[in-house]
Write a structure and sequence with these properties.
515 residues, alpha/beta, 7-stranded mixed beta sheet
Length: 515
């Protein structure tokens, strides 16, 4: 393909993408294929000779689109939001074209410096303490990671390195493996499953602590756990607190947790992957009380801030903890301006990194702070609108407080009937939802996720749920507690319940973070 062909098909692809986005609600939200569908349609080997791109283009709709679940459909209500906007897509296009590998300032100064600026912009939008900003008084700053899962693991490793170094200075005779065997980290029983996965990868114990009746981790619970573990000879070193949990969008009480972490020298990381975007709106910042005690904080703009996957931002008060933990600096990576600006290879697990800040820059300039706030508030209001429809119906109950863009609800008749309702909804195929299970309660989650979702779309989704509930409740007496109702979100085979289990920390990984 030469430049002229690229111009031709580039324009055609942009038109195709725009048509796809503008008409997405006309597509079936969920695929109807079965495993191996594409293998039956495509040759078993790559073509021997070049093909005309016109033929390739035709095959997008023929072969690819039938196997796509349309995350940006207004009728997709599963997991948490997957952001997308035209400015963000354009940012990725330019990043792909430039193709730099920005592991250091020298490899492409704009890649590093734009990231410094845009993470400061975003940090200020979220009202983070100055210590978290590059322009702040210390060694803090923001860095763009791929996912929140990667961020939790990164922070746990940095915290582990910090505590091991501290103990070895106090007791030089101790070996690393002996120290590691005594380390213990904490999270809530509502925490994302990636938190436990990070502990497995980091080879440390992770204790899951009970949340309260509002699914929030409280200070007394952490204090007792720390006291008990210290009596057992363990060394508490890390807490992953959640602001906006996967199952119910609950908020840990970091105002209570923070002072305990400070006293016990526990690294507090705050995972605000979904709900953190809402902190651009001052009315939601009450959930951030205690943020000053955190060592690190992360949010996924690719979930709820008009940015397409992948873009997760992490802020840290003292970046030296990252540099000390991950600094491997062979001569071929060095440059004459080291120390004057961040070399982001020391702030992450991979060496290479994409020019992701372009799409953040494009979006922030295109929408402005007011535009992002309007978008967040619209989703929160649509969630409240849906909650009212559910409550006015009379047959449903809300299972946890509707705070942001997530509504958790169930039929009053109980778990099995609610399971059957989800099965009916998925068989119907007009909307997409997932279940969750917490404290012996099975419920459904309706997340407002698409940029283009309107009140008409919300009413449409409710009507689908209402008509499906009509069918299920006609036969509710036939559904017994002993009858397993197994729901397959894939629609291809009824095998496994796929959803969020807030109590056992087992949830589905999507977008690199359990959603």
């Amino acid at each position: 393909m030469d430049a002229e062909e690229f111009r031709k098909y580039g324009r055609k692809m942009v038109d195709y993408i725009a048509d796809y986005m503008e008409n997405i609600r006309e597509r079936d939200v969920v695929h109807k294929v079965t495993p191996g569908y594409l293998k039956k349609l495509l040759p078993s080997e790559a073509p021997e000779n070049p093909e005309d791109f016109e033929e390739v283009f035709k095959d997008i709709e023929k072969f690819i689109m039938p196997g796509v679940t349309h995350w940006h459909s207004p009728y997709f209500h599963g997991y948490f939001a997957a952001g997308n906007t035209y400015p963000s897509i354009l940012g990725d296009m330019l990043s792909d074209a430039i193709g730099c590998i920005g592991f250091s300032w020298a490899t492409s100064p704009a890649c590093t410096e734009l990231e410094v600026i845009t993470t400061d912009w975003l940090g200020k939008m979220l009202a983070l303490p100055e210590e978290f900003l590059h322009c702040g008084p210390g060694d803090g700053g923001g860095v763009i990671q791929s996912t929140a899962s990667e961020t939790v693991f990164l922070c746990l490793l940095a915290a582990r390195n910090k505590i091991v170094d501290k103990i070895k200075k106090e007791k030089p005779d101790l070996e690393d493996k002996e120290i590691l065997s005594k380390l213990v980290a904490y999270c809530t029983d509502q925490a994302n499953s990636s938190v436990h996965r990070s502990a497995l990868l980091g080879a440390v114990k992770m204790h899951k602590l009970d949340s309260d009746s509002n699914f929030s981790l409280r200070g007394d619970t952490l204090r007792k756990a720390v006291e008990n573990d210290k009596k057992e000879g363990l060394i508490p070193f890390f807490l992953c607190a959640s602001l906006g949990t996967t199952g119910t969008c609950a908020f840990d009480n970091i105002e209570e947790l923070g002072p305990i972490c400070e006293k016990e020298d526990i690294w507090m990381h705050i995972d605000a992957a979904y709900a953190g975007s809402a902190f651009v709106c001052p009315e939601y910042r009450k959930y951030m009380k205690g943020i000053e005690y955190a060592e690190t904080f992360s949010v996924n703009p690719h979930k709820w801030m008009l940015i397409n996957f992948d873009l997760s931002v992490m802020w840290i008060k003292n970046s030296l903890y990252l540099v000390d933990a991950f600094n491997v600096d062979p001569i071929y990576l060095r440059h004459t301006n080291e120390g004057k600006v961040p070399d982001y290879r020391h702030w992450q697990i991979p060496l290479g990194r994409r020019f992701r800040s372009l799409k953040l820059w494009f979006m922030l300039r295109s929408y402005g702070v007011s535009g992002v706030q309007k978008y967040i508030r619209k989703h929160c209001q649509l969630a409240k609108d849906f909650e009212k429809l559910i409550l006015d119906d009379g047959r449903f109950e809300i299972t946890s407080e509707t705070v942001m863009g997530l509504v958790c609800f169930r039929l009053k008749k109980g778990n099995k009937v609610t399971e059957k309702l989800l099965s009916e909804i998925l068989d119907d195929g007009r909307i997409y939802m997932i279940p969750a299970f917490s404290r012996d309660t099975y419920f459904l989650r309706l997340a407002v996720v698409a940029e283009r979702t309107t009140s008409d779309d919300i009413r449409y989704s409710y009507e689908v749920i209402r008509t499906c509930a009509d069918k299920v409740l006609q036969h509710s007496e036939e559904i017994t507690a002993d009858e397993p109702v197994v729901v397959d979100i894939d629609l291809s085979r009824k095998k496994n319940i796929l959803g969020v289990n807030a109590d056992t920390n087992s949830a589905n990984h999507v977008n690199g973070h359990t959603t």
